[in-house]
Amino acid sequence: MHRFDDLDMKLLYELTADGSISVPTLSKKLGINASVLYSRIKRLMKKKLIKKFTIEIDDSLLGIGVKASVGINRDPKFKDEIHKQFMQTAEIVSISEITGRFDIMINVYAKNLEDLHTIVIEKIGKIEGVQNTE
Predict the structure, then answer these.
(1) Torsion region of 63: left, alpha or beta (phi above 0 gives left; psi -120 to 50 gives alpha)
(2) Cα angle: 10, vertex 13, 14; to 5 degrees
(3) Where are the domains of the chain?
(4) Rounded to whole angstroms, how far apart are CA atoms 66 and 109?
(5) Nearest CA among 107, 134, 103 for reference residue 121
(6) Per the CB 3.0–4.6 Å rule, which of 58, 94, 114, 128 could disulfide with 107?
(7) Mean pLDDT of the chain
(8) Calpha distance 10→62 (Å, rounded)
(9) CA 48, CA 127: separation in Å to the nearest integer?
């Protein structure tokens, strides 16, 4: 495990709150020289504590009003084909193999509840080998 000091923690806190903040702005906010902050960020990236800088999207502006997790039971003979079909379904944003009650858990984004129902019944439920969805 790597050791991180208070400056590292403050830096991580600020970058978590706003990954797009510029180093000069961060320098003024923390009262630390910009070159020191730049070096710290590079070091944290090299140690892989910071994996990437990303964005947060307002889903409603993309027409996404519903996010749902759907549990699926499947016929084991169709595992690969089902996975392939899921990968081609735009509304499915993640696929997880799980243990327990379901075989697969997927996350689906939809415009509204009616759209979600259509996706689950008409798209997912009709894939060969899908036994049931919940």
Answers:
(1) left
(2) 90
(3) 6-46, 59-133
(4) 6
(5) 134
(6) 94
(7) 95
(8) 33
(9) 40
Query: What's the whole-model pTM score?
Result: 0.69
CATH number, domain 6-46? 1.10.10.10
- CATH fold for the domain made of 59-133: Alpha-Beta Plaits (3.30.70)
Best CA proximity match to 105, nearest among 94, 92, 116, 96? 96
- Residue ranges in 1-134 assigned as alpha helix (H): 6-17, 23-30, 34-46, 79-87, 113-118
**What confidence tens digit (pLDDT) does each residue in 24-33 have?**
999 999 999 9
Q: Edge-to-edge strands of the sheet including 92-97?
A: 92-97, 104-110, 66-74, 130-133
Residue with tokens 């790597």: 2
